[in-house]
Design goal:
Blueprint lengths: L6 E2 L3 E4 L6 H8 L2 H5 L12 H14 L3 E8 L4 E11 L4 E8 L8 H16 L4 E7 L3 H9 L3 E12 L2 E11 L4
Parallel strand pairs: 5-6
Antiparallel strand pairs: 1-2, 2-3, 3-4, 4-5, 6-8, 7-8
Helix pairs in contact: 1-3
Length: about 180
């Protein structure tokens, strides 16, 4: 069985999720404001959803489809968010996605985690391209992308329907040689 590594930064430990994370994951990710800023997080986040999601992670990692990390505050030892890669090895490309629990917004944790996982994608996985997208109405996510060196590549009008409303996306990307 292929093991997903842990990554350490100055303030964070990025590690595979485990079932002990489920209660805090559900509490943080269950905040409506978190779901509102992401494409794939449902709301309400019901009992059992965190456990089910966590249990599916290892298989997706072993298949080379995903590498998803719990963001743990090093000093507190607490789960504060998540960051992950949706991997397309055929094209040596990945999409990075992230979320941070509301009590931890505005403290640079998301940027620190995203930068570490970006490097993991380039250095460990050998990828050529990392891209991401955010709702136009969520510029804070775009600032994270800019801080890790991504360039704005486009604007997609009404690209997705979230909670009955069409949303615009901003697209960012970075190539291995641009770091």
């Amino acid at each position: 069985m292929k093991e997903q590594p842990a990554i350490e930064t100055k303030r964070l430990i990025l590690r595979p999720h485990n079932l002990d994370d489920a209660p805090e994951l559900q509490r943080l990710i269950g905040d409506r404001d978190i779901a509102f800023t992401t494409t794939n997080i449902p709301h309400p986040y019901e009992d059992g959803m965190a456990e089910e999601w966590i249990q599916a992670r290892q298989e997706k990692f072993e298949k080379g489809e995903k590498a998803e990390f719990a963001i743990v505050h090093r000093a507190q030892g607490r789960l504060i968010g998540g960051v992950g890669l949706s991997i397309d090895m055929q094209n040596e490309s990945t999409e990075i996605g992230y979320w941070i629990g509301k009590p931890y917004w505005g403290q640079g944790y998301c940027t620190e985690a995203a930068r570490a996982v970006l490097e993991y994608g380039f250095e460990v996985l050998g990828l050529n391209r990392v891209h991401s997208r955010h709702f136009t109405r969520n510029p804070a996510s775009g600032r994270v992308m800019q801080k890790i060196g991504m360039k704005h590549e486009g604007h997609l009008r009404q690209a997705i329907k979230k909670w009955g409303k069409f949303e615009d996306w901003e697209i960012y990307g970075i190539l291995r040689g641009e770091r």
